[in-house]
Amino acid sequence: MARTKPLVGIVMGSTSDWDVMSHAARQLKEFGVPCDSRALSAHRTPDALAEWIETSEKHGVRCFIAAAGGAAHLAGVVAAKTTLPVLGVPMPSKYLQGMDSLLSMVQMPKGIPVATFAIGEAGAANAALFAVAMLALSDVNIARKLEEFRERQTRAVLSAKLPE
């Protein structure tokens, strides 16, 4: 029977981040890894965020993917509220193209780590793949799927032809 309880919690600062973060959710779905996706703000809904983190942990979530733009405090707040791994995805922004978010996430204070990925869609997909790799350490089914995924990527590169 397939697991239906989420193993990964995906949280973003606002619903406008879903266009990017849907790439993480889709990547997890391809591996059969259930996730719970929410839009919760570190600043506007801090109590709801803290409650969601605590409830998610109790229900078996093994890591969090947190995405935010601008000051990008969300990933750090999530990391402050849990000892589970937090994978940060900086969101592209109107004025600084996400560099502000990236720099904010990678400058977490010593003792509260956030593993930070690329800005935007590539970061969202890679954060999901990193979550899959962590889960594969204790789940042979996920490990097999990850190995197959990597083999497909290798075959695709080796079989690609350059235009003449």
List keywords for this structure.
single chain; 164 residues; alpha/beta; five-stranded parallel beta sheet; globular
Report on this model:
Helix 4 (99-106) links the parallel strand 4 (86-90) and strand 5 (115-116). The chain has a 5-stranded parallel sheet with strand order 2-1-3-4-5, with helices on both faces. The N and C termini lie far apart (49 Å). It has helices at residues 18-30, 46-58, 74-81, 99-106, 121-136, 140-159, and strands spanning 8-12, 35-39, 63-68, 86-90, 115-116. It is built from 6 helices and 5 strands; from the N terminus they run βαβαβαβαβαα.
Topology, element by element:
Layout: E1 8-12, H1 18-30, E2 35-39, H2 46-58, E3 63-68, H3 74-81, E4 86-90, H4 99-106, E5 115-116, H5 121-136, H6 140-159
Parallel strand pairs: 1-2, 1-3, 3-4, 4-5
Helix pairs in contact: 1-5, 5-6
Q: Which sequence of SSEs, written as H and E, runs from N to C?
A: EHEHEHEHEHH
Helix content: 40-55%
- The total count of helices amounts to 6
The radius of gyration is 16 Å
Trace the largest sheet across and list its strands: 2-1-3-4-5
Give the biggest beta sheet. 5 strands, parallel
* Low-confidence spans: none
Beta strands, count: 5
| Mass-distribution shape | globular
Compute the average pLDDT. Answer: 95
Structural class: alpha/beta
Instruction: State the end-to-end CA separation.
Output: 49 Å
Beta-strand percentage range? 5-15%
